């Protein structure tokens, strides 16, 4: 039986996560529309700045006031920014990501016109939060955000 595009794109997001230079978490994302890949991304500092696993190999990069990475873009942000930079239309696109979107990424996803999000693992569980605020936000405002099967 042939794999579905959902399965293929989620596998690609999982493989992309392995490209991340983050010491703490490796996350990958794929943006697709009509069975075609629009953009890809993984978490890490902006291109041309530094690589955390090289510059801060033991503890990772400096943390912000909430204990998150102070230097990196999230995988979803990188995928969306690259798509926009190259003139892609994201209206109606689907995002596949290895970690459910945080609330700031969810706002960006919604604003970009992405209509569906599939994720593998829970951001809330990873961060020790009570709920997946990003997933809740997206579902509340008409973007289907569901755990991939």
From TrEMBL:
<keyword id="KW-0862">Zinc</keyword>
<dbReference type="InterPro" id="IPR002125">
    <property type="entry name" value="CMP_dCMP_dom"/>
</dbReference>
<feature type="domain" description="CMP/dCMP-type deaminase">
    <location>
        <begin position="4"/>
        <end position="132"/>
    </location>
</feature>
<feature type="binding site">
    <location>
        <position position="74"/>
    </location>
    <ligand>
        <name>Zn(2+)</name>
    </ligand>
</feature>
<protein>
    <submittedName>
        <fullName>dCMP deaminase family protein</fullName>
    </submittedName>
</protein>
<dbReference type="GO" id="GO:0004132">
    <property type="term" value="F:dCMP deaminase activity"/>
</dbReference>
<keyword id="KW-0479">Metal-binding</keyword>
<dbReference type="Pfam" id="PF00383">
    <property type="entry name" value="dCMP_cyt_deam_1"/>
</dbReference>
<dbReference type="InterPro" id="IPR035105">
    <property type="entry name" value="Deoxycytidylate_deaminase_dom"/>
</dbReference>
<keyword id="KW-0378">Hydrolase</keyword>
<dbReference type="InterPro" id="IPR015517">
    <property type="entry name" value="dCMP_deaminase-rel"/>
</dbReference>
<dbReference type="GO" id="GO:0005737">
    <property type="term" value="C:cytoplasm"/>
</dbReference>
<feature type="active site" description="Proton donor">
    <location>
        <position position="76"/>
    </location>
</feature>
<dbReference type="GO" id="GO:0008270">
    <property type="term" value="F:zinc ion binding"/>
</dbReference>
<feature type="binding site">
    <location>
        <position position="105"/>
    </location>
    <ligand>
        <name>Zn(2+)</name>
    </ligand>
</feature>
<dbReference type="InterPro" id="IPR016192">
    <property type="entry name" value="APOBEC/CMP_deaminase_Zn-bd"/>
</dbReference>
<dbReference type="InterPro" id="IPR016193">
    <property type="entry name" value="Cytidine_deaminase-like"/>
</dbReference>
<dbReference type="GO" id="GO:0006220">
    <property type="term" value="P:pyrimidine nucleotide metabolic process"/>
</dbReference>
<comment type="similarity">
    <text>Belongs to the cytidine and deoxycytidylate deaminase family.</text>
</comment>
<feature type="binding site">
    <location>
        <position position="102"/>
    </location>
    <ligand>
        <name>Zn(2+)</name>
    </ligand>
</feature>
<dbReference type="InterPro" id="IPR016473">
    <property type="entry name" value="dCMP_deaminase"/>
</dbReference>
């Amino acid at each position: 039986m042939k794999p579905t595009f959902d399965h293929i794109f989620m596998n690609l997001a999982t493989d992309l996560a392995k490209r991340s230079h983050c010491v703490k978490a490796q996350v990958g994302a794929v943006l697709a529309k009509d069975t075609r890949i629009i953009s890809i991304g993984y978490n890490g500092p902006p291109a041309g700045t530094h690589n955390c696993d090289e510059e801060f190999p033991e503890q990772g990069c400096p943390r912000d006031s909430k204990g998150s990475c102070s230097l990196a873009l999230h995988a979803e942000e990188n995928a969306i920014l690259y798509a926009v930079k190259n003139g892609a239309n994201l209206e109606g696109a689907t995002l596949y990501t290895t970690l459910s979107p945080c609330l700031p990424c969810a706002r960006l996803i919604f604003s970009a016109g992405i209509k569906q999000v599939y994720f593998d693992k829970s951001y809330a569980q990873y961060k020790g939060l009570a709920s997946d605020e990003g997933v809740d936000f997206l579902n509340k405002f008409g973007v289907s955000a569901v755990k991939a099967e």
